[in-house]
Specification:
There is one protein chain. Helix content is 44%, strand content 25%. The protein has nine helices and eleven strands. The N and C termini lie far apart (61 Å).
Length: 223
């Protein structure tokens, strides 16, 4: 079976990068390829963890849902990346839901094969620990963002964080609301205020940051 493309995909992600060529080729034989349309679910929170997903194309949204049905986006993951590493180790169910944002493609590795790799290659275990650490830091940052300050401050912080590499923050107002744990109307009201003050320009499918320094002032306000 041809595994060149699968081996190349594994080499691009931090979790499997430490493996040598022979180990990657052996691992690639256990992979199963899946494609997803925008909005399609990879898995839902609470389902048993069957394995790890290697995202080779597209973007996915990782989110939690409250008992009342409100969603909170935890993270957006862009290929190349791995998804659902934590439950692989502890054996628990998936702690969050994952949905394709754009057309996406994954390679799926069953849990038993991942654990076998960890036993034979300690460097993969160390890579997994480093990845867990980054995930934890990201969750702590999110916890701070949704806990401290009003929506206006949190929206300013989100726009600043998402615009570090580019001026335009992609995403609808509904998607921004999901990342902040609020509703679209509240985000729209605050974006309109930011636009009136010359801090941003609301565009179709995104928000352009015009005055990053002004947004930093909004983010630092004590309400």
């Amino acid at each position: 079976m041809e595994t060149v493309a699968e081996t190349a995909a594994l080499r691009q992600v931090a979790l499997f990068g430490p493996l040598d060529g022979a180990a990657l080729e052996a691992l690639a034989r256990h992979l199963r390829r899946h494609t997803y349309a925008p909005g399609e679910m990879l898995f839902r929170e609470g389902e048993p963890c069957a394995g790890v997903f290697v995202l080779t194309a597209g973007m996915v949204r990782i989110y939690k849902m409250s008992p009342g049905g409100r969603e909170l986006t935890l993270h957006r993951e862009q290929a190349p990346a791995t998804i659902a590493e934590v439950p692989l180790v502890d054996g628990g169910p998936y702690p969050a839901s994952v949905q394709a944002v754009s057309p996406a493609e994954t390679l799926f590795l069953p849990r038993r094969d991942f654990l076998a790799v960890c036993e034979r290659h300690p460097r993969v275990t160390l890579a997994a620990l480093e990845l867990f650490g980054r995930r934890l830091r990201g969750l702590l940052t999110l916890l701070e963002a949704v806990t401290f300050g009003g929506v206006r401050q949190r929206l300013a912080r989100l726009l600043l964080r998402r615009s570090r590499d580019r001026k335009v923050v992609a995403g609808t107002q509904q998607e921004l609301a999901l990342e902040l744990g609020t509703v679209r109307e509240v985000v729209a009201r605050n974006l309109n205020r930011f636009q009136a003050e010359g801090l941003v320009r609301i565009r179709r499918g995104g928000v352009e940051v015009l005055d990053a320094e002004g947004l930093r002032g909004e983010a630092a306000l004590e309400l």
